[in-house]
Amino acid sequence: MKDLLTGPSGLGTSAARLGRPEAVTLPPEPGYAERPWGDGTAPPLYVPVLEREDALLAAAVDERLVAWAGECGFEEPERFLGGMFGRLAVLTHVDTDDVDQLLIAARLNAAWWAADDLYADDTEMGAVPTELPPRLALAMAAMDPVAPAAEFTVDLEERIASDPVLAGLRSGIAHLTSRSTATVVQRVCYSTFAMFVSWGAYAAWRHTGNYPPAWQYLATRQHDTFYTSMTLIDAVGGYELPAPLYYDPRVRQLLTAAGTASVMVNDLVSVEKDAADEQPVCNMVLQIAADRECSIAEATARTVELHNQLVRDFEAGHKALLAVPSVELHRFLKGTKAWMGGGFEWHTTHPRYK
């Protein structure tokens, strides 16, 4: 192990050892802005400026996504057009216009959302809290194939093939595998599995009716954020962020801040939908309102404040890492910034959240 650690050490020195320049000059890029959202009565959200809107490219991705959904066995696959996952991919992954690359994000996000709706969140669509953990255990087996085990594997494969969610997760990972590295595939799998652990906590709270205080919900939510979607940034872009950089604590802190900020947008636009479920879904606004016995408007304002703080933390941290001599790191962080701006645009214009 010592041999592996000899020579220059620290953030970015792997790039230095490969003879890359000691400074990276980045072209000007869009900044940040305060954006109104919802009906305009809540405080504005501080977000990166949207970098791309391309309806024709989004339609091309969605057309391929609908065909894929049919292959996975989803009923009425054209309903995936309403999910607008092609548009999500185009808004959030702005460094490629290759449809096959964008389908990496579109397929996996569609499969994750399907699992969330059908397994975890929406009781009208079949979500049952007590059935969630075993469903997620099979989802892990679908994404990260286990060792062959004779006739037991036959039963497992039959189950995966018969469940559109499992088939979608399996197919989405297969497409990622064909276009990225084993390292990135495992990052995506294990960020997904961490997300599943949080889903299990939500299910327990909904089943027992013992909802958590806001701090505990947020601690759980921070492993169930758009960080999972953001793990696809380099794969969609056609490169790999080296592991020493990806796992550096400073980089991980930025990525978790970005993911949490983006998922706070989801909570903000989902309040009415989440509160209306017969078994209410955990939501930061709802948990703050319950904790503090305050109005939804007051809880919304505090959640906006938290979101904006996280985005400003990301902005400052991003600037602090500009001196690191790694083209891949700067491309990934720029992609993370673009993801936040695109994610805001997608959430605040999607009919699902109206």
What report would you give on this structure?
The protein is an all-alpha fold. The chain has one domain: Farnesyl Diphosphate Synthase. Helices cover 66% and strands 2% of the residues. The protein is built from 17 helices and two strands. Strands 1-2 form a two-stranded antiparallel ribbon. Helix 2 packs across helix 4 (85-92), helix 5 runs antiparallel to helix 8 (164-179) and helix 14 packs parallel to helix 17. It is globular and about 55 Å long. The model is unreliable at 1-10 and 12-24 (pLDDT under 50). GO terms for molecular function: metal ion binding; terpene synthase activity. InterPro entries: Isoprenoid_synthase_dom_sf, MIB_synthase, Terpene_cyclase-like_2. It comes from Lentzea flaviverrucosa. This is Terpene synthase. Keywords: Lyase, Magnesium, Metal-binding.
Features of the shown structure:
single chain; 354 residues; mainly alpha; Farnesyl Diphosphate Synthase; two-stranded antiparallel sheet; 17 helices; disordered N terminus; metal ion binding; lyase; metal-binding; terpene synthase activity; Terpene synthase
Explain the layout of strands and helices:
Blueprint: H1 13-17, E1 32-35, E2 45-48, H2 55-72, H3 80-83, H4 85-92, H5 99-121, H6 132-143, H7 150-162, H8 164-179, H9 182-208, H10 214-221, H11 227-230, H12 233-237, H13 243-246, H14 249-276, H15 284-292, H16 296-320, H17 327-349
Antiparallel strand pairs: 1-2
Helix pairs in contact: 2-4, 2-5, 4-5, 4-17, 5-8, 6-8, 6-9, 7-8, 14-16, 14-17, 15-16
